[in-house]
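Figure 3 (text version): structure tokens given as input.
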């Protein structure tokens, strides 16, 4: 096999890797736009603009990505409408897209869906968005607002306590940075240390995964 042929085969293989894409446009909210791509491998990319120059890449637990793709399959990979006929308030224009390399990708738009599988999948994407918003806030505080680290940590812990935190290991580099730097408040360093210990302990003991119970 020539190098060119090999590269073409690799490109084709990657092009056919299934992925889920979620977008939400809600002008006036924070953020006004969200885009999340989830590969079947568990790699997820979070953006807050279509041309976001600083996207966040995170690796989901295998159980979480498996549930998301299972829900997409139960939704026939978005080949039928999901919008509810009920008249409800506008809650943001949402889209689910399934791309397995075939053309065109399968896409469905909705404001509100009464389909329980759609609600479960939406909740998974919303949990990713909530987690990454917490990550962005903690990262900003760690870099530019040392006095604000304590409050940022409390936000992350609140998300964790409500069982909505996704892929908590992504926070370890930030937590370790706080723990090791005496310029941060002692209270914040203690909280960061306890949080990091909990994440590592959960990972070592194989604690229950974060995938939700199916409705």
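Below: residues designed for each position.
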């Amino acid at each position: 096999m020539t190098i060119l042929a090999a590269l073409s085969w690799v490109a084709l293989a990657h092009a056919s890797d299934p992925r889920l894409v979620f977008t939400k446009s809600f002008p006036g909210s924070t953020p006004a736009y969200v885009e999340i791509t989830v590969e079947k491998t568990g790699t997820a990319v979070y953006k807050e603009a279509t041309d976001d120059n600083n996207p966040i890449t995170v690796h989901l637990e295998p159980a979480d990505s498996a549930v998301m793709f299972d829900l997409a399959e139960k939704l026939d990979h978005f080949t039928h409408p999901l919008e509810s006929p009920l008249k409800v308030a506008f809650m943001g224009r949402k889209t689910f897209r399934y791309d397995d390399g075939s053309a065109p990708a399968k896409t469905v738009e909705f404001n509100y869906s009464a389909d329980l599988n759609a609600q479960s999948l939406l909740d998974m994407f919303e949990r990713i968005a909530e987690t990454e918003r917490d990550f962005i806030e903690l990262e900003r505080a760690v870099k530019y607002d040392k006095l604000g680290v304590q409050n940022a940590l409390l936000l992350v812990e609140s998300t964790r306590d409500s069982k909505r935190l996704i892929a908590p290991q992504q926070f370890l580099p930030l937590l370790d940075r706080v723990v090791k730097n005496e310029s941060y408040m002692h209270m914040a360093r203690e909280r960061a240390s306890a949080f990091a210990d909990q994440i590592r302990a959960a990972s070592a003991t194989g604690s229950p995964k974060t995938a939700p119970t199916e409705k």
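The helical segments are 3-15, 62-74, 116-144, 149-161, 172-180, 186-205.
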